[in-house]
Amino acid sequence: MNLQIAPEPLLRQASRVGLVDCDIHTKSSLEDMRPFLTERWWSYLQRYGSRVHHGYARNFPYPKSAPMAARRDSWPPSGGQPASDLEFLRAQLLDPLGIELAIMNPLSPTGQGELNPDLSAAMAFAANEVQLERWTRREPRLRASIVVPYEDGTASAEEIRRRGGDASFAHVLLMSRTSNPLGKRQYWPIYEAAQETGRPVGIHVFGYSGYALTNSGWPSFYIEEMAEHSVSCQAQVTSLVMEGVFERYRDLKIVLIEAGFGWLPALGWRLDRLWERMRDEVPHVKRPPSEYIRKHVWVTTQPMEEAERIDHVVDAMRWVGWDRILFATDYPHWDFDDPRVALPRTLNDEQRADILSGNARRVYGFV
Length: 367
Fold this sequence. Notes:
Blueprint: H1 7-17, E1 19-24, H2 30-33, H3 39-48, H4 86-94, E2 99-104, H5 117-136, E3 142-147, H6 153-163, E4 169-177, H7 188-197, E5 201-207, H8 222-242, H9 245-248, E6 254-257, H10 264-278, H11 289-296, E7 297-300, H12 310-320, E8 325-326, H13 349-364
Parallel strand pairs: 1-2, 2-3, 3-4, 4-5, 5-6, 6-7, 7-8
């Protein structure tokens, strides 16, 4: 994080604007989901277990130096995993940082990426019920994500419409590594239901595609895994634009979560150049790709870009758009971004207030 600015004045400013954190990872267990699973699926899980596309499911993907990919101070004194205890979450995150609203993006167990599509749908339903029961009904500052079995577009649309009238849910949650690029028509029912219910679609990095992040196999090191997060989102943005998703769903909002944003201007430039030369192949893409990106895509700050020169970061933010950048901490993960020190010191008060609060309130319709 950038450490060139004093934390306390920024904390006071964040409190004044009512900080909105667009990415926290509360943790619930499979046992928490049990009341919301039918006996069939609970018995299935006990007998056969989970079978997902992702090869890493056979081993824990995070390095031993950071168990659960968590901050070392995020383990609750009462026991349990990081971000599993509401009182500790309040004491460590919500209260001291003056967070007025925080969006939960549960990563597991959720059923996303399950090879059995019916189990995936059942677990997604249960994960959504758990978010309500354990979190949002007990803490009004929390908002849930609509977890969907994203490899089944029809079942996902059903779950979105089931939750669409509940203000506890902020957005539809997808992962950045899906079995096919997200512009493919198998995923279009998700966008139709999201647009219909007025919900943005959040695409969080990682996922369970079953494919290696490279073109030739699994990498040797965790650092390669981390670097790939932005690459997977580049592929997804390209697919959404070129497959015509934004032309068909003209009110669709996409929020890219935990992928940074420094790569987005270069992607827009390259797509515009290629579109000018090969636009006859994609007649359904009627405008320069960068225009679709600037209209339909928002980004979260975490992990905040850190260049040798701050003005380079600010230039990238300017291209993305001051109204398209949302703040996120990624709590409780080890690369947590503190709102007191994360943003470039050269931002003016209006820019800072929009990123810390205003932009999220507008895109999500928070009041």
